Model the fold of this input.
Amino acid sequence: VDAAGFEDFVSREQPALLRLAVLLAGDRGHAEDLVQTALLKTYRHWGRITRSGEPTAYVRRVLVTTHTSWRRRLSTTEQVMETLPDRADPAAAPEDDEELRSALLTLPPRMRAAVVLRFYADLSELQTAQLMGCSVSTVNTQTARGLGRLRSLLAPPVLVPEEGA
Amino acid sequence: MDTDELAQRLARLAERTAPPPREELAQVVLERGRTQRRQRAAVTSLVAAVAAVVVAAPLLLDGPPGGHRAADEHAVATSIAGVDVLAGPTRGSLAGDAAFLEAVRRLPWTSEDMSGSDVPDAPLDSRRVVFAGDVPGGRWVLVAGENTARPANRDPAAQTDLGALSDTAIAWFAGPPGATPGQLELQSLPRGVDAGRPAALADAGTGALVVVAAPGDTVEVSLRPEVAADGEVGRSWQELAAPDGVAVTTTPPVSSPYAGALRYRVTRQGAEVVTTGPDGRWNESSTAPDVPVDWLRPAPPASPADVVLSSSVVQVLSMLGLSPEETAVDVVWAGDVPAPYTRPARVHLFSVTLPSGATYTDTSLSLDMGGGAVAGTSCGSGIRPAGLPVPEQTFALRCDATDFSDDSGVISSLVLVAPAGATSARALDLDGGVLAEFPLTDGVAVVPFPERAASVQTMTADGSVLASTRPLAFADLGD
Done:
């Protein structure tokens, strides 16, 4: 395995992967975990991946797939939970950033991934579909629903007496 | 909000909240990758050798209770990478009982209700006893071995379960105090795990908790989230003694069937390794608690889907770590919404008043699938500060009903539940524009969800605004 090549790749791609991961995962700790897991999976197949072309697309696909499939089994005799790391520090972010972050977290994982890949990563519908392992039609549907839900949630301040928060 | 604005906000959010790059990340990944390869190659021969020593020379393994010798012999790792929390000699108060260890190593990894091709059944020669000890109210054992249930498709991108591709699987066994090996029963579904991550088991009935980490790790426990009167959520943490990386303790037993609020946190060399909940040993002494609820409105005609209400309430109390006596539960409304199925979906909206006076509101959307099967999801949840009594609050829900198949259509409904004085309501978009107006019956309306609706206002008969609220999102308990 070309360890030096892998180190260069990690050094080059890590910041962008962390930015993508924090949007998918919603918090720093989970994002770090996600990136590390994706890189570990990528490293296991590093030889094949580098022979077949640019590994960036591969690791991004692993990142997205891992995110959308991260769940544990439940049975009647156990309760297993995902890693639950620290959230991003809300105090460090403007209110509307926190509002967007909270709104993103209400989207189901695949819907969130579609929105983030289309509007953050600026991927085409086809590229997004290839990354998510689904059809272009599914990407369109998920994106439209996600966008609609975000628009519903990202409301301006309400002008009349507010109940709850 | 147009897509350009969304793109800009996403970019800013990513830039501001992404964790900083770690210089050592590549080394961490390389080391973990190499470790996993070494484990795959060496696990069989290594464990077989250890087992042979255990059988042939048990006196060699006699040591003080608690496995301190094990801790001494287990070199403290110098980094998170490469640390295998399941490695090293057996820990726990029974670590010196070679005959016991050999017997539990041979316990079957399947049981009547826990078996199948996707359940690991580690070959005997790959198994090692990680922990064996007396715990409050019982005797527990953790065994690790080769993961025989790794998916046929080893492409990481096709992974469907974290840990499934790991070479290592674990199984917990438990029995009564002083149990013989034959009295120990499989407690959790054996599963592939990342050997670098701690493992833990909790018993909701006895309050026993065991966390197996690496020697030198710091182990802390938090019993439940604490919701203050202003709705803010926090947790308090207590460090546990874990001299050899294993913490054995008792937490207050809970009345719910599992300890859903319990969290443990492991830090290593100042860095957090994991914060999560333990595997849960079902509280056998607990039937689902019969939580008293007050109905603020008449219940709709009975439906098989109503079974979801009591389990949802129990689940919320479990998640909050509170007993029925510490809370008051109001069913604010229950009724039906259209679904793309042969029958409508049933919605339950209930609110739990917490000790601080804050409220935790939750919802369920359930569908009677026939044949005794009920599928369920949620229309959102939320935490509100203390103050306004629940009957005087207004709730708006977006309920997306499907037939629970992957390619189902979706029927989105707006459910508005308000005090009876509200006679009409209107849905507003982001700019305050009116999207739809509709009458309320007894303060309630179920209407098609107006696309782009951002908030809902309720009004009295004379047109004055009573309240404004946004559709419930999802409550954040901090974890």
Remarks:
- Confidence is low (pLDDT under 50) at residues 71-93, 157-165 of chain A.
- Chain A touches chain B through 86 residues (CB under 8 Å).
- The two ends of chain A are 53 Å apart (CA to CA).
